[in-house]
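Review this:
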Amino acid sequence: MRPVSIELDRMTADQVIAENSPLWDFMEHAYKLGFHTILLPEFYGGQGMTPLQTHLIFEEFGWASFGLSVFLIVACFPFYCACMTADDELVDAFVKPFCECRDGSIRGCWAITEPDHGSDVIAVGEECFTSPQMVGSVQARLDGNEWVINGQKSSWVSCGTVATHALLHCQVDSSKGFAGNGICIVPLDLNGVSRGAPLEKIGQRDLNQGEIFFDEVRIPKGWMIVQPDFYVPMLDIILASANLCMASWATGLARAAMEEAITYSRDRVQGGKRLIEHYSMKQRIFQLFGRVETSRAVSRSAMELNFNMSPPIC
């Protein structure tokens, strides 16, 4: 995972997702091992792991590559949320094919961010969140038995230019601001869907991100899995899950940074001796160790608590 990440980091955004990119070999191997279904229940074909098992694996992912960790787990988001509906039609159409996929060809993205709104789209509890002045960049209207979707998601949708499906947040009732949003599953091969160019970034260059555009895209009524009456509780669940994943990956990343610091301090000579032999450096490394251990303890406890209860409290 880390060697692939290093290789991808040196490529352009277009090269990262090119047909011959090592990204796709990594994804195929990860899918064969079932890593794409870590968050999904065993009942539907997922790994059915405990929160502790999930944290242990995610920390290792974060140690190896934060960007590829996001790429791999965001790929499951539409299907992870479809599991929560217990709708047999949605499970048969989306969840089971995803769990059975072993070549990385079925990939999701989390299309929530918008070019004009920043963090306002997730500002639950803030005055702006329910303001009618907050007009979403993506709108959905009901037309008979279909939802018609129009608008644009931002250029930082993870997996946005390579996903096959989107977990799409869109505004259904603009009179309620973002509290009037819904959540739907959209296959991205439908008529009216287009993508922007992959985003060139300074960091996490192994994580593809890019815009998605919707022009009169039609989906069946049943694919809108959350409507405004349950949007805020569902958003809380999704955000808590995402934050817990990020915390466990960040723990792995912190551990990797600490290990790099220790390696450097053993090699670097200053003042006639290696840095590791200086008392002040020993203190600093111990502080790093304490922060990593704190991150692990807090994030693991939060994951064990919140993955075992609903609604979450983190």
Observations:
- The domain at 233-306 is CATH 1.20.140.10 (Butyryl-CoA Dehydrogenase, subunit A; domain 3).
